[in-house]
Amino acid sequence: QVSICLFLCLSWGSCCPPSCQCTERAGAKAVLCSARHLEEIPKDIPQDAVFLKLDTNSITRIPSNAFRHLSHLEELDLSRNAIEKIDGAAFKGVAAGLRTLDLSSNRIRSIPKEALLMLNAKLRLANNPWHCECALQEVLWEAQLDPDSVQDITCHTAPREEYVGKPLLQVLDAGVNFCSVRQRTTDVAMFITMFGWFAMVITYVVCYVRHNREDARKHVEYLKSLPSTQNPAETISTVL
């Protein structure tokens, strides 16, 4: 067994993960880890892998630099998992070389835009419980979506109930702009905040003026009450 493992390591450049099968496809290395009950991405995937199938497992997260050592990777299949979280640097190191990335049929509600920076791959995002908002709209603007699956990107949740259950592309084609809605909300919140500060300043100034007037009135009354041989009006005029 040791000699067989050594032979495989020498021929493949590294040992194949025990839960996967390493083979060749069109003269390139393919690592097949489909339906192997995996809960995380294997650490020992051969560095010269070109095709990697991790579909139909129980993976819940794609951490940062998960595939960074796979500089030859062109096709990555992560469909039919339980992925809920994708880190911003999940595809760092492989984004430029990937031709296909399949994230369909997972539990993804949102994906950070930075995770798809420099990504030239054809992207499949169908059949996920997406929350339709500005962040997802920005991802769709920048990503190269697979045209065969784009209609299956539907709004599981949305700012307005009327969008729920509808294909996101249909909602956007109808003229909805989630980013402008967020901008208007931000502008309104800023206006309310500024108005609140302005009202506080005005209130302070009014109270300050009233307080000074009251002090001045009391001072004048005090001066009037003082015994004097001068005409009270002349005394007040002198003081003022």
From TrEMBL:
Any one GO cellular component localisation term in the record: plasma membrane
Recorded superkingdom: Eukaryota
Bilayer disposition of the protein: Single-pass membrane protein
UniProt xrefs under InterPro entries: Leu-rich_rpt, Leu-rich_rpt_typical-subtyp, LRR_dom_sf, LRR_TM_domain-containing, LRRNT
Coiled coil start-end: none
Leader peptide range in chain numbering: 1-22
Alphabetical keyword list: Leucine-rich repeat, Membrane, Repeat, Signal, Transmembrane, Transmembrane helix
Family: Belongs to the LRRC3 family.
Name of a matching Pfam family: LRRNT
Record protein name field: Leucine-rich repeat-containing protein 3
Domain LRRNT: 15-51
TM region positions: 188-209
Compartments, record wording: Membrane
